[in-house]
Amino acid sequence: MAGDFILAVASMMIARLRSDEVTLVLSQVVTDLVQGEFMQLGSKETENERFAHYLTKTYRKTASLIANSVKAVALLSGADEATSELAFQYGRNLGLSFQLVDDLLDFVSSAQAMGKPTAADLRLGLATAPVLFACEKYPELNPMIMRRFQEAGDVEKAFELVHKSRGLEQTRFLARKHGVEAARLAADLTDSPYQKALVVTTDLVLNRIK
């Protein structure tokens, strides 16, 4: 009920903007979020399909909010179509980078630093980027993923195999790739303190510890 209330207040605030275009853009966030939650309930058989599924789910659950919010601000400022699209792509890359770092921290940060248990995603039955990358070296992770780490010892074994693989390194590399792309896009905007803040934000996302 609290979530419904927050959504209702947000909807009223959006309506007060009196911008049909911005309303459509921000409504897409809710659509993507619900679709992402449904995607999280399922998994794919093959490794390639599984990673594509993961990236799409990550966009819908996390990056869409940032991408469409940044685009909405651009539209409200009167930016042209090209700049609005640049803003969207900046937010998309920043959001993907944020979530990839989050998935990484779930394996390397302490519970005290994170404010939540480590390996929380594994315990929820979720295979994130570090696990999917680790599958390349340890295919025995595949049946664990399909059964959502429900058998005794699955979580502990998967956690161990991720650390023995290059999964964490590959996840960090992909997060940096999206972060660098976001910074590149921000650098194309007119020089200003706000533009510099967008560039700095990409670094903050990549180097956060919780």
From TrEMBL:
GO cellular component terms, semicolon-separated: mitochondrion; transferase complex
UniProt entry keywords in alphabetical sequence: Isoprene biosynthesis, Magnesium, Metal-binding, Transferase
Pfam families: polyprenyl_synt
GO biological process: isoprenoid biosynthetic process; pheromone biosynthetic process; ubiquinone biosynthetic process
Cofactors named for this entry: Mg(2+)
InterPro entries given in the database record: Isoprenoid_synthase_dom_sf, Polyprenyl_synt, Polyprenyl_synt_CS
GO molecular function list: metal ion binding; prenyltransferase activity
Family note: Belongs to the FPP/GGPP synthase family.
Name of the protein in question: Decaprenyl-diphosphate synthase subunit 1
Native organism: Papilio xuthus (Asian swallowtail butterfly)
